[in-house]
């Protein structure tokens, strides 16, 4: 049965499934108004046609009149136009990752690329699906960020990602992760976790400390293991035997670190210094010491790692290891936009001495 309107005129039906066209101009509309072929309009709008031809000006004028917007995603999927660089991590953890992302974004935008930040929540399946989706969108590079267990499973996963991205001329770059010895073709930009903590322990030993504790996650991820090895190196350099009772396990939150510190100092009153795996943990350590009436650094010195912006404003300000997060991101970004990769890069860390470390108490 035909539906009629009130003036008895047949109502127009939507002859195609789904929503009706919204009215946005397409390439055919631009070509029709400019009086050129679709191929000519496409070349002009893609910047591949001579700028002096009369048809060139008509196409641009038609596009402006119709409000035509070039489909950048479609162009990138055809291998033309701007491509994106993706920053992929399990989660965005405070200013450290933000600084790394900022370094990469500076390079990406300066070279005409889009910059995308993605998180996986630590879900391997979600990570794999994300890599596949980014490949379909013809991403230029994926910066895979953060610590992982140094396992054969991760190497195999990284190899699959690199092969998937390679199908569209993209590359995988490990950003803030150690190089994979069996996969030298995968770029790696990292910083010196181990040497940074080693310098912190050496600093404390030089101030006379012998009972130096370490608080960290003590798991098998690259960041945790490298920083704990640095602690052991520093003790060995100073001739201090490793005492398992001076290692304290904590999650990477200030609350977890505060709880772990309260339990530790109750049973180890002889500890005179604490080296923390991260500044976030150091904040919790300092809070617990203050709450227990323990002076920093008069009774116990505290050293962190990362040099987050806020730690200079603590009372006392925190001695910490400065990691070059922005530089790591910038170098990874340069490789992502085409700079030659000649092998793994490990940037130096720097000990920043402030008020939270001092001579051992008499």
TrEMBL record:
Pfam families in the record: LacI, Peripla_BP_3
Keywords, sorted A to Z: DNA-binding, Transcription, Transcription regulation
Record has Transcription as a keyword: yes
A GO molecular-function descriptor: transcription cis-regulatory region binding
Stretches assigned to the HTH lacI-type domain: 25-79
Domain of life where this protein originates: Bacteria
UniProt-listed InterPro entries: HTH_LacI (IPR000843), LacI/GalR-like_sensor (IPR046335), Lambda_DNA-bd_dom_sf (IPR010982), Peripla_BP_I (IPR028082)
Start-end of Basic and acidic residues biased regions: 1-11
Location of region: Disordered: 1-25
Protein name: Catabolite control protein A
Species of provenance: Microbacterium hydrocarbonoxydans
């Amino acid at each position: 049965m035909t539906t009629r309107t009130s003036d008895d005129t047949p109502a127009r039906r939507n002859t195609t499934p789904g929503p009706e066209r919204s009215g946005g101009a397409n390439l055919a509309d631009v070509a029709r108004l400019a009086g050129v072929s679709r191929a000519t309009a496409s070349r002009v709008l893609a910047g591949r046609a001579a700028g002096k031809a009369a048809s060139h000006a008509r196409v641009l004028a038609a596009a402006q009149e119709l409000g035509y917007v070039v489909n950048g995603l479609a162009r990138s999927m055809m291998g033309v136009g701007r491509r994106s660089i993706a920053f992929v991590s399990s989660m965005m953890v405070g200013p450290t990752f933000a600084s790394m992302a900022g370094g990469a974004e500076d390079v990406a935008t300066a070279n005409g690329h889009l910059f995308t930040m993605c998180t996986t929540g630590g879900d391997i399946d979600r990570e794999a699906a994300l890599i596949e989706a980014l490949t379909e969108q013809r991403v230029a590079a994926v910066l895979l960020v953060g610590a992982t267990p140094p396992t054969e499973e991760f190497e195999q996963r990284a190899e699959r990602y690199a092969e998937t991205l390679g199908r569209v001329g993209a590359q995988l770059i490990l950003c803030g992760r150690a190089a994979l010895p069996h996969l030298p073709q995968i770029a790696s930009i990292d910083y010196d976790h181990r040497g940074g903590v080693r310098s912190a322990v050496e600093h404390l030993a030089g101030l006379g400390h012998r009972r130096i504790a370490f608080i960290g996650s003590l798991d098998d991820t690259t960041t945790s293991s490298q920083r704990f090895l640095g602690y052991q190196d520093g003790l060995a350099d100073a001739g201090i035997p490793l005492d398992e009772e001076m290692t304290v396990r904590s999650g990477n939150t200030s609350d977890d670190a505060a709880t772990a510190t309260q339990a530790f100092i109750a049973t180890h009153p002889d500890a005179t210094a604490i080296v923390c795996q991260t500044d976030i943990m150091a904040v919790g350590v300092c809070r617990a010491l203050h709450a227990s009436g323990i002076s920093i650094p008069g009774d116990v010195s505290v050293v962190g790692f990362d040099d987050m912006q806020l730690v200079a404003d603590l009372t006392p300000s925190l001695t910490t290891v400065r990691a070059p997060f922005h530089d790591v991101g910038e170098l990874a970004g340069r490789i992502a936009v085409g700079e030659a990769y000649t092998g793994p890069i490990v940037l130096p860390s720097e000990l920043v001495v402030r008020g939270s470390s001092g001579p051992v108490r008499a």
